[in-house]
Design a protein that fits this description.
Blueprint lengths: L1 E6 L5 H10 L12 E3 L5 E6 L4 H6 L5 E5 H7 L4 E5 L5 E8 L14 E4 L2 H10 L5 E4 L15 E6 L3 H5 L2 E10 L1 E5 L5 H22 E9 L3 H7 L7 E4 L5 E9 L3 H10 L3 E7 L6
Parallel strand pairs: 1-3, 1-4, 7-8, 7-9
Antiparallel strand pairs: 2-3, 4-11, 5-11, 6-9, 6-10, 12-14, 12-15, 13-14
The chain binds adenosine-5'-triphosphate and zinc ion.
Length: 283
């Protein structure tokens, strides 16, 4: 049985559960419990505060967990990153009152910075040879300058609207973060096996999200050129159309350069292009 800790409530909770469910794990009872067991996979979920998860993993009360990279880095526990999960994307940034002009990173010297991430901020400042005060607070960091508690803050930013409404502006990005699957480096063999099995499924879910199934009609003389653009997993499937000299071509196309590829395909004479989501993708 592999014990995985996820956030009890907050920004990571829903996506963490969704990922596990998309990976085929079913849970009979909800998150009201402290823990729940998957009904079809040897996994037990623990619902915890995200800040506590790295410690629980170090203590091996949990074997693995899902947290923001920012939390993992701040806590400096015995954890290793197994997989970046591509959600809860944000950055940890330094912000100062909007009314002040920013004279570059050296102007932070001697300032007082309020943050919930003292370790990360300390590392950032010392990397840039800057001495500044760090004022650790656990929440509502963005109001600190307004009430005279600090000159600057370092906090999570996604759109910047919270900063704006508190009269602050972002001046330095300290780190970028996303949700990560972490685990103790000392997993016993049996648990490692379960984790690898889960990891394989997570990878299948992720590649499916990044790819689409594509069907199109094309003149036979364009097949080669089109195959070069969308080679698919091994090679495209090609079926003759009733109409002479034409084929139907099925393949897989990556999300990243999707529109450029579509333009190319059209220029080669592709018609009737259908693009369909893929649920799982196993290479
Ligand atoms: P807890 O009560 O469990 O301690 P919390 O208040 O510390 O929760 P949340 O606000 O739920 O944490 O954020 C959890 C994680 O989600 C953060 O550590 C960060 O990695 C990420 N995150 C935070 N804010 C955002 C945002 N605005 N956009 C995207 N990701 C975010
Ligand atoms: Zn937290």
């Amino acid at each position: 049985m592999l014990r995985i800790a996820i956030q009890k409530s907050g920004r990571l909770q829903e996506e963490s559960l969704k990922l596990l469910k998309e990976s085929g794990l079913a849970f009979s009872n909800g998150k009201e419990q402290l823990k729940t067991q998957a009904t079809n996979f040897p996994v037990e979920l623990l619902f915890l505060r995200d800040d506590d998860i790295p410690q629980y993993i170090e203590d091996q009360v949990a074997d693995a967990g899902i947290v923001g990279e920012n939390v993992m880095l701040e806590k400096q526990k015995k954890n290793e990153v197994i997989k970046r999960l591509d959600f809860a994307k944000c950055r940890l940034s330094i912000a100062i009152p909007r009314s002040e002009t920013y004279g570059g990173i050296s102007s932070l010297a001697g300032k007082n910075i309020a943050t919930s991430y003292p370790t990360i901020v300390k590392q950032f400042l010392s990397k840039h040879n800057i001495e500044a005060g760090i004022h650790e607070i656990s929440g509502s960091v963005e109001i600190a300058p307004g009430i005279g508690l600090a000159d600057a803050i370092c906090d999570i930013v996604s759109t910047g609207s919270t900063l704006l409404s508190n009269g602050l502006k972002e001046v330095e990005v300290v780190m970028k973060s996303e949700a990560v699957l972490i685990a103790t480096p000392d997993l016993e063999a049996e648990k490692k096996k379960i984790l690898n099995k889960l990891l394989f499924r997570i990878q299948s879910v992720q590649s499916a999200k990044n790819n689409k199934y594509i069907l199109l009609n094309c003149p036979n003389e364009a097949i080669e050129k089109i195959t070069n653009v969308i080679p698919g997993m091994k090679s495209p499937t090609i079926m003759p159309l009733e109409r002479k000299g034409w084929s139907s071509l099925h393949s897989v196309v990556n999300e990243n350069d999707f529109w450029e590829k579509i333009d190319q395909l059209k220029s080669f004479g592709a018609e009737g292009i259908l693009v369909i989501p893929i649920e799982k993708m196993i290479a």
